[in-house]
Specification:
Largest sheet: 5 strands, mixed
Number of strands: 7
CATH class of the domain at 69-194: Alpha Beta
Distance between the termini: 65 Å
CATH topology of the domain at 69-194: Trna Endonuclease, Chain: A, domain 1
Strand order of the largest sheet: 1-2-3-4-5
Strand content: 5-15%
Structural class: alpha/beta
Length: about 240
């Protein structure tokens, strides 16, 4: 085990966080209004008494962006976790399906599925993770039946009251970062470098966001606003009517 240098972590974060900002900006630039209108529930917005076209556009846009940002940032955190573990335990990016990280520690081979937070999946998604764990174990034990393979669901933030899930262990937040690094304070140390160039990047994003809101509001109004009011019937037809 090698002690992780916080300077190395900071350097990695500052180098790669730009990818997050570029990704969220790119997802915004390539977005089409009609695509998100088809994916969202128009009945919900009517029930919430949304009256302004711009309000509806912003709600749609923010919901889409929130989902995209979670995915993009999750990929960044996964990369950071693998980088940290490689420095400390010589871990590596796994080639097994559904497994993100592998490393050896305390006479065991750890296979880790990394998720953003603790509430990441439903029962079928968890079953899929278990299936991936079992397949990876089977392959790794080919030729070495005595290999002790331990499955871990690692979550980059949050808490988990019971780590032992029977077929695998679940470590979240501080416990996860300490597990892969040996540093109990690492979960705190990574927060500061995340702000590197954040203000400038967010200013750029907000400028693009405002342009998209204005453009989408104009586009929406041309098709789905009648006599100054949202034409809910037209919107529902666009979202749900059978194609002829």
């Amino acid at each position: 085990m090698v002690t992780i240098k916080i300077e190395d972590v900071s350097a990695y974060v500052e180098k790669h966080i730009d990818g997050f900002h570029k990704g969220r900006l790119e997802s915004l630039k390539t977005l089409k209004l009609k695509n998100i209108l088809k994916r969202k529930n128009p009945y919900l917005f009517k029930a919430k008494n949304v009256l302004l076209a711009q309000d509806l556009v912003r709600i749609l846009l923010d919901a889409y962006l929130s989902s995209q940002e979670e995915t993009i940032f999750g990929n960044f955190l996964e990369g950071l976790a693998i980088f940290v573990n490689e420095k400390v335990y010589n871990g590596w990016k796994s080639s097994s399906q559904g497994i993100d990280l592998e490393f050896n520690k305390d006479n065991a081979r750890y296979i880790v599925a990394i998720k953003s937070g603790p509430n990441w999946g439903n029962s079928s998604q968890i079953e899929k993770m278990l299936d991936n764990f079992n397949k990876a174990k089977k392959i790794m034990r080919t030729g070495n039946q005595n290999l002790n393979v331990v499955a871990i669901n690692g979550c980059c933030y949050g808490r988990n009251n019971k780590s032992d899930k029977g077929q695998y262990f679940k470590y979240c937040g501080q416990n996860f970062w300490e597990f892969i690094s040996g540093n109990a304070d690492l979960y705190l140390k990574i927060i500061e470098p995340l702000g590197h160039t954040a203000r400038a990047k967010n200013d750029e994003f907000q400028k693009e966001y405002a342009q998209i809101v204005n453009s989408f509001t104009l586009e929406f109004s041309k098709t789905f606003v009648k006599q100054g009011e949202i034409d809910w019937e037209a919107l529902v037809k666009f979202n749900s009517a059978e194609s002829k």
